[in-house]
């Protein structure tokens, strides 16, 4: 048997933890956890209360099954609003409003029209932070639309395409990623930062088919197929398709952006200096190859 001296006891007291609420414990088995009883010992109501209509199982709400999981919640269901917060949105712009902008000289139809021109009018705005990915040109006011334009939108319908091409115009559906949208809707703010114009990204997997379709006038579609679809649409809607080749505004009507281009007339990699009013272009062959890829 080990004998404790005064010196050993003092060393033991120095090393032992101090008594506090944090290290107080009951002995093993001293406390027993109460279980839910049955009948007169508790829990005999099964969620129906003590007296009245609830105890007699009258006037219960539909689907209530005495505290158990209801039948309609035991099986999977289709979530109608699933992932709605991440879906791309395209705020609409009607042809009637577009014609009004043209009549008020807020848009110059002698030049190509894109999202930057529409936002610069002050009558149309988008917010990429709210999942806005561009303009949806709708056919409201198609019968009164008379302008001949070259317009680039992000979403449209067949009737809208027919209304524009009937007047000898051209429409293109083009995709812009979020970074390119911020640059396009406010070019001045971007140019003041003194950064090089980035490349436009390609569409995501769920949008590549739309922007590759000639029927949708996608910017990734084959130009020869687009010419054929223009003829097919004219036959369907019963109008004579004007010949763009004989139009005096031919150069304006056939003007299109490159797949990597954000602005008309400005290539990726260029730096726009607003203070000196000059454009700086890359000279390094590797940079040129990077921005063209």
UniProtKB/TrEMBL annotation:
Keywords, comma-separated and alphabetical: Ribonucleoprotein, Ribosomal protein
Gene: mrpl15
The protein's name: Large ribosomal subunit protein uL15m
Family of this protein: Belongs to the universal ribosomal protein uL15 family.
Region of interest: Disordered: 25-63
Source organism (scientific name): Melanaphis sacchari
InterPro entries in UniProt: Ribosomal_uL15 (IPR030878), Ribosomal_uL15/eL18 (IPR021131), Ribosomal_uL15/eL18_sf (IPR036227), Ribosomal_uL15_bac-type (IPR005749)
Cellular component aspect of the GO annotation: mitochondrial large ribosomal subunit
Ribosomal protein among keywords: yes
Molecular function as annotated in GO: structural constituent of ribosome
Protein's UniProt keywords contain Phosphoprotein: no
């Amino acid at each position: 048997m080990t004998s404790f001296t005064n010196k050993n006891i003092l060393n033991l007291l120095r090393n032992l933890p101090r008594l506090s609420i944090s290290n107080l414990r009951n002995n093993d088995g001293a406390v027993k956890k109460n279980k839910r009883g049955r009948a007169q010992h508790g829990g005999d109501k099964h969620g129906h209360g003590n007296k009245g209509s609830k105890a007699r199982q009258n006037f219960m709400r539909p689907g209530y099954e005495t505290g158990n999981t209801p039948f309609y919640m035991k099986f999977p269901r289709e979530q109608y609003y699933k992932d709605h917060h991440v879906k791309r949105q395209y705020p609409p712009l009607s042809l009637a409003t577009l014609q009004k902008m043209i009549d008020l000289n807020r848009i110059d139809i002698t030049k190509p029209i894109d999202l930057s021109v529409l936002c610069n009018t002050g009558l149309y705005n988008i917010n990429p932070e709210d999942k806005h990915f561009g303009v949806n040109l709708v056919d409201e006011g198609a019968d009164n639309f008379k302008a001949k334009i070259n317009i680039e939108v992000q979403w449209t319908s067949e009737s809208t395409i027919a209304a524009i091409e009937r007047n000898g115009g051209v429409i293109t559906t083009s995709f812009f990623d979020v970074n390119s949208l911020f640059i396009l809707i406010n070019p001045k703010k971007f140019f003041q930062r003194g950064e090089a114009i980035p490349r436009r990204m390609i569409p995501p997997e769920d949008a590549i088919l739309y922007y590759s379709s000639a029927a949708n006038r996608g910017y990734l579609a084959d130009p020869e197929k687009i010419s054929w679809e223009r003829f097919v649409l004219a036959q369907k809607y019963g109008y004579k398709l004007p010949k763009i080749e004989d139009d005096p505004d031919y150069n304006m009507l056939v003007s299109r952006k490159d797949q990597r281009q954000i602005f008309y007339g400005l290539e990726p990699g260029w730096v726009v200096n607003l203070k000196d009013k000059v454009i700086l272009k890359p000279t390094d062959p590797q940079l040129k190859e990077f921005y063209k890829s």
